[in-house]
Design goal:
The complex is a heterodimer. By secondary structure, chain A is mostly beta strands. Chain A is about 0% helix and about 50% strand. Chain A starts with a strand and ends with a strand. Chain B is mainly β. Chain B has strands at about 5, 10-15, 20-25, 30-40, 45-50, 55-60, 60-65, 70-75, 85-90, 100-105, 105-110. Chain B is globular and about 40 Å long. The mean pLDDT of chain B is about 95. The chains are: A mainly beta, B mainly beta. At the A-B interface, β5 and β9 of A face β10 of B.
Chain lengths: ~120, ~110
């Protein structure tokens, strides 16, 4: 069935550096993907909607210059956390749905980001 | 925009008892209501979902009910087992928008043997 792959599954970086997270739809084309952030013991908060071939749509309060989203192909969206700080440490997770048929939403495995 | 409220935040039951988690939503345009189970450090797993054209859906020990008028939906787990222990999230979406989910705050369910 449809699968969404996310990479890396965990990353540790130093404060001030940038980190790129990839989200791929493996056997379907996703014109739209979604990026969520989840702090410990909290819910998943939608950060942005990634649109293939156009600009991402960011939710209120999410800094677009800090969280760069690129959706250059129908199977790949990337989230880059720029100039990361310890408060950006979180679980980032992407999702996508096969637009054909009646498919449910699929989540990637998530990326645990730790900024030291 | 959509806002989803979920209660309770924690729920402890004895093995074999039933568990009920309730959610309300604000946007009457929402028509898709999935429930996810999330274990620590893992991605959410879809356990059941319901569309706004039905009022109830059941899958073995799990059922979901939807009251569109009141904008309420609930998850019912019967004959709970220790392996049901996890965090459960409800969510709401407009289905043809491709899956933009707004999640509830989550319920930590603990099933005691």
């Amino acid at each position: 069935g449809a699968v969404v792959s996310q990479h890396p599954s965990w990353v540790i970086c130093k404060s001030g550096t940038s980190v790129k997270i990839e989200c791929r739809s493996l056997d379907f084309q996703a014109t739209t993907m979604f990026w969520y952030r989840q702090f410990p013991k909290q819910s998943l908060m939608l950060m942005a909607t990634s649109n293939e071939g156009s600009k991402a749509t960011y939710e209120q309060g999410v800094e677009k210059d800090k969280f760069l989203i690129n959706h250059a192909s129908l199977t790949l969206s990337t989230l880059t956390v720029t100039s990361a700080h310890p408060e950006d440490s979180s679980f980032y997770i992407c999702s996508a749905r096969d637009p054909t048929g009646n498919s449910p939403l699929h989540f990637g495995n998530g990326t645990r980001l730790t900024v030291t | 925009g959509e806002n989803v409220e979920q209660h309770p935040s924690t729920l402890s039951v004895q093995e074999g008892d039933s568990a009920v988690i309730k959610c309300t939503y604000s946007d009457s345009a929402s028509n898709y209501f999935p429930w996810y189970k999330q274990e620590l450090g893992k991605r959410p797993q879809l356990i059941i979902d319901i569309r706004s054209n039905v009022g109830e859906k059941k899958d073995q020990r799990i059922a979901v009910t939807l009251n569109k008028t009141a904008k309420h939906f609930s998850l019912h787990i019967t004959e709970t087992q220790p392996e049901d222990s996890a965090v459960y999230f409800c969510a709401a979406a407009i289905y043809n928008q491709g899956g933009k989910l707004i999640f509830g705050q989550g319920t930590e369910l603990s099933v005691k043997p």
